[in-house]
Amino acid sequence: MTDTLLAIALILASFLTALAALVGFAMLWRGREKRLLKQDPARKDGVVFLFEGEKLVDSSESAGRILESARTSGDDWVRLASVLGPQFQRFTSLPRQALEEGPVRVKSVDETSLLTVEVMNGMVRIELSDAQGDGNGTDVDHHAVAAMREELAIHRDIAEHTPFLSWRENKLGEIIWANRAYLDLAEILSEGATIAAWPPARLFDAPEDGAAAGAETPRVKLRLPEEDVEKWFELHRAKLENDTLFTAVPIENLIRAETSLSEFITTLTGTFAHLPIGLAIFNKERKLTLFNPALTDLTMFPAEFLCAQPTLFS
Hints:
The N and C termini lie far apart (123 Å). It is elongated, with a radius of gyration of 32 Å. 41% of the residues lie in helices and 22% in strands. The chain has 10 helices and 12 strands. The protein has helices at 2-38, 61-68, 76-84, 94-101, 142-161, 180-188, 209-212, 252-272, 293-299, 303-307, and strands at residues 47-52, 55-59, 104-107, 113-120, 123-130, 165-169, 175-178, 219-223, 230-239, 244-250, 280-282, 288-291. It is α+β, with helices and mostly antiparallel strands. The protein folds into 3 domains: 23-130, 2-Layer Sandwich (Beta-Lactamase), CATH 3.30.450; 142-250, Beta-Lactamase; 264-307, no CATH class. The protein has a 5-stranded antiparallel sheet with strand order 2-1-5-4-3. A 5-stranded antiparallel sheet has the order 7-6-10-9-8. A two-stranded antiparallel sheet has the order 11-12. Mean pLDDT is 77; it is low at 210-215.
């Protein structure tokens, strides 16, 4: 009996020792995650993120609010990239650059913000500060930020509920912003992707400068997976100071109307061809758009002249 109790006591002691070791290890690991920001004087008022891989392990209060403003789904890194990517070119490649070259400091496109990326103890520390300030992120006009936040909410609501696709590309041709309609369609066409990615997939080939400046607006079509239906869009392009804004307007109804009109004209032409009387149809600009063979016989006008679409007064 004594031996049995002694064995149970030894097993229990071993279990408690292992449990204490696991708890201690977990506390040390958690302390490792938090240590960098706790020792950071910018922790309270600055904008600081701490990542381990694609997981956010800690952030300052201001940084947390920025991450909450992300519209994309997915992991923490993808959400942060969707917010800071439009402001800092090649944002997603900065951690690798910091690992290879040491701390990296990059100014935003408008040169008002400074992003500092560094790798410390296997984790990536990202700090956002005022490019003109002392670098601790505390010299921000909070009243101006509040006003910009309100204006941003208005523009975000507009972008979220606009029925047509809109996106923005930088000079490198990278998508740095897209509205909800674009993101939803990109997710449908992603063919089985379970996690949203940033930047989103490119749905259209951007028209060349010369094509965009032409008289006709480019038209493109997309076929939805598992559906026997084509979506038609007109692509509009607006050149901004540093970027390009694209808009794709759905024109399925217009395409259907044009198809019906073309079929009607084909049927009408076949009917006109067998009539013994001469018929001519002019458009609103008073140009000849349709005539039958009897018209050439009765007027003696050559077919080449009529095919050139003369006006009513030619």
